[in-house]
Amino acid sequence: MITLLQFIPIDILLGVLAFFISWFIINRKEKDSEEVVLVDKDNLDDKEVIVLEAVKNGAKNLGDVMRMTGLPKATAYRKIKSLIKKGKLKVKSENGKRYIYINNEEKKKNNNNK
Questions:
Q1: 102/73 Cα distance (integer angstroms)
Q2: Helix (H/G/I), strand (E/B), else coil: 33
Q3: Residue span of the structural domain in which 80 resides
Q4: Which of 13, 53, 70, 92 is the most buried (most CB within 10 A)?
Q5: 104 and 51 fall within a common domain
Q6: Residues with Cβ within 8 Å of residue 10, at least 6 apart in sequence
Q7: Taking the model in full, what pTM does it have?
Q8: Do the beta carbons of residue 59 and residue 65 sit within 8 Å?
Q9: b/e map 26-51, b = 16+ CB within 10 Å
Q10: Residue 57: partners with Cβ closer than 8 Å, 6 or more residues away
């Protein structure tokens, strides 16, 4: 007959195993999400660099930038406006919607520096 005391070591072993499996999965996701930032960082703060990378990776409007960066709406809006003033981004209006994109002169400048 199996007693309760015989299940305790198995229960502890399963708990330790579950802990290490979950720890491994969490750490693997963090490593996978690391990205290399290839942005000319002259006169840009950290959040501007993040927004610029989001646009380079396909963000077309404020909502896309918010989703890709996790920034609040007001912060993302201010950073987009700042990047437009600095000449890093441009705005295009189509059918009443505004789209942001990388300034072509900046693309050429970055390609010439490589």
A1: 20
A2: coil
A3: 46-113
A4: 53
A5: yes
A6: none
A7: 0.57
A8: yes
A9: eeeeeeeeeeeeebeeeebeeebbbb
A10: 68
H helical segments located in 33-99 = 46-56, 62-69, 73-85
Q: Please tell me whether residues 56 and 17 are part of one structural domain.
A: no
Residues 52 and 107 in one domain: yes
List 94's β-bridge partners, or say none: 97
For residue 41, is it within any domain?
Answer: no
pLDDT in tens, 48-96: 999 999 999 999 999 999 999 999 999 999 999 999 998 899 999 888 8
Asked whether 71 and 47 are in contact (CB, 8 A), the reply is yes
Domain count, the chain: 2
Residue located via tokens 């290839």: 38
